[in-house]
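Q: Got a minute? One more chain.
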Amino acid sequence: IEKKTGKKRTLRLNPQLQRHITECHEHIRPAGVNVPILQSQKGTTFSIQRINVMLKEVKKKYRLHVGNFSCHSLRKTFGRQVVEQAGESSEMALIKLSELFNHSSPQITRRYLGLRQEELMEVYDSLTF
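A: Always. Here it is, folded:
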């Protein structure tokens, strides 16, 4: 259940992601099946803000050359990859993403992902002299 909207969200994990999660779970070895994996030493669940701080620490430690590195940027990256992989079906992908992201329209999703600005900049790129 989303905190922001109160809406229930169901996720499907494809077999590849299920295997990856299983491998991570075996590596981390949490105390139990229903125990959150991202827990503090006190046993409390990390907040999104704390996870963002941890991601910034990972970025710095491994000298990752990425702009934004946060929970939110990972969400946007997911959306951009879905649209890019959709190819000619990108409009349908935007419709589906707008529902997944709980946006009011695909146009909001397009703007959220920064696609509209890119499309406008491509107009300049298409000019020939």
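A: Residues 71-86 form the longest helix (16 residues).
Q: Perfect, thanks.
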